[in-house]
Amino acid sequence: MIQKYFGGVGKIYIRKKSGTAYYNINSLKDIIKYVIPHLDNWELVSKKKADYILFREVVILMSKKEHLSNSGIAKIISLKASLNLGLKG
Questions:
Q1: 88, 19, 31: which is closest to 59 by C-alpha?
Q2: Does the residue 49 lie in any domain?
């Protein structure tokens, strides 16, 4: 159902040991087209919001192909270092 909601993109995997399912979208184009607009419309709360802001910034940098330069990679590494820590407000 979630895969259909996001236009049929991505894959659903099931971990055999735990029986846990997870949904994965790897395509930058699909993340920009489906995931970013969804998360922009449905605001996250708490630390998840801070992580999303950082994730979104990385996606924007990659969409501008900044990840192909040394300075762009440095920006992405800096943003990644802050993931899962929350932003200081």
A1: 31
A2: yes
Question: Are the C-beta atoms of 10 and 30 separated by less than 8 Å?
Answer: yes
Is the pTM higher than 0.85? The answer reads no
For residue 8, count CB atoms less than 10 angstroms from its CB and return exposed for 0-12, middle for 13-18, buried for 19 or more.
Answer: exposed
For the record, the structure tokens of 50 come out as 């801070």
Per-residue pLDDT of 50-65, as tens digits, reads 899 999 999 999 999 9
Q: Which residue range is the domain that position 88 belongs to? A: 43-89
Residue that has been written with the tokens 């990679």 in this structure: 73
The DSSP bridge partners found for residue 23 are 12
Q: Is residue 36 domain-resident? A: no
Q: How many domains does the chain have?
A: 1
The predicted pLDDT at position 59 comes to 96
Asked if residue 71 belongs to a domain, the reply is yes
